[in-house]
Amino acid sequence: MSTSKASTMRFTTLVAVGATTAAAATAMLGACLSDLAPFIPADAGADTRTTPPPAAATGCGDGIIATLDDGGDAGESCDPGAGAAPGCTPRCTLSCGGVLGPSGHCYFLADPGDHAAAVEHCARAGGHLVTIGDAEEAKLVDAFVDGGSYRVGLSVSPAANAYVAESVPRVGGSGVPEPGWPRGDDRCAGCFAIVDAGPDGSNITFPPADPDAGDRSCVVARGGVWLEVPCSGASDALTVCEREPAGQRTQYCGGPYCTTLPATSGRKRYVISLEPATAAAASELCRGYDAGRLVVLESPAERAQLAREIVLLARDRDLETNDVWIGLAREDDGWRWDDGVPADDAGAGRPRPWANNEPRPDATGRAFLRLTTFFDTQLVATSPAADAETKLFVCERR
């Protein structure tokens, strides 16, 4: 199977529904989805806002992590481009010095210290203080420290009235904001923490490690429990850093952009459109090739990896990425993914997707992934006027 570098791929094209109405604009699709059938709406018009293509991929050192067409390993596990990045060798392979997770994230130890010092030590190594996105990642890090205590990359932001993830800024990394954890009466069903929470996603504050301590605005994990601690002062907590692979998996494919993800390698391929469209137009485009559809997010890892690709792609082109249509819509019996699974069906093995205080009771139409700098970034939001709004969108094909 060929690698998904532009120099080795065979291109086909597909005209996309886009822009501000369902009578949308054109954009060219193809590349890593080389066996897609053409879909050309009869009323498609020209789109002059399509971003220009980036330079063609050439190999290690081009900034694109080479994969097989189905997302499998093609010999590169990182690619920082023309420069160098911590944790990535000159041959575009990972050098961790700790433990590698299944998505290529490296977890390693840095010098201990208070919260601010720990954040700085991780940044100097091209990473960030570890953030935990799901139970599997928590188990991996707990095993890495052999059940010891370590600092979690969360700290209170008074302005947000929430714990904000310490995922930005970083040196030699993506700097993509990640979800945090709310405080007070807010509920964030899609946020993750090791803490007791109500069945509706309402949250309970982390228990204090020392009730007599002063301002407790930071978090440590100890024996599988997350505790509130002061951010300053001495602590026995280890500094565990997390570093994502340098580079992107996404590349230009004739108009929009194509990618695969480690979380769904061999099962899914994605098309990312940076041209806003209505939900109806976006859904029509996705259906137009081999039973494609708007993306159905099946795990926190898939969601986080896709969000990273979208944010980096848009950032390189000075575009905003606030909202992205996904395959989740309100039906008569509640919110359902486009494969028929209820959004809140824990038995399906999917996490609840909702951002803070979502879904709105007055919302209609489609839901969308919200990519912002707020603490509930990368989670799903709704709108009472969704049918009339335009947003970026992502299609998936199995």
Task: Give a description of the structure.
- The protein has 398 residues and is α+β, with helices and mostly antiparallel strands.
- The chain is built from 4 helices and 20 strands.
- Strand 3 and strand 4 form a beta hairpin.
- It starts with 12 loop residues before the first strand and ends with a strand.
- The relative contact order is 0.17.
Q: Could you write a compact summary of the structure shown?
A:
This protein has 398 residues and is of the alpha+beta class. It folds into two domains: 13-76 and 247-397, Mannose-Binding Protein A, subunit A (Mannose-Binding Protein A, Chain A, Roll), CATH 3.10.100; 99-243, Mannose-Binding Protein A, subunit A (Mannose-Binding Protein A, Chain A).
Question: What is this structure's SSE topology?
Answer:
Layout: E1 13-15, E2 28-30, E3 99-100, E4 106-110, H1 115-124, E5 128-129, H2 135-144, E6 150-157, E7 162-165, E8 181-182, E9 218-222, E10 225-229, E11 239-243, E12 251-252, E13 257-259, E14 269-278, H3 279-287, E15 293-294, H4 300-316, E16 323-331, E17 334-337, E18 366-370, E19 379-381, E20 390-397
Order of helix and strand elements from N to C terminus: EEEEHEHEEEEEEEEEHEHEEEEE
CATH superfamily membership of the largest domain, which one? Answer: Mannose-Binding Protein A, subunit A
Q: How far apart are the first and last residues' alpha carbons, in Å?
A: 16 Å
Structural class: alpha+beta
The amount of helix comes to 10-25%
Mean pLDDT: 83
Total helices: the number is: 4
What is the domain total for the residues?
A: 2
The amount of beta strand, in percent, is 15-25%
Shape: globular
Can you name the CATH architecture of the largest domain?
A: Roll
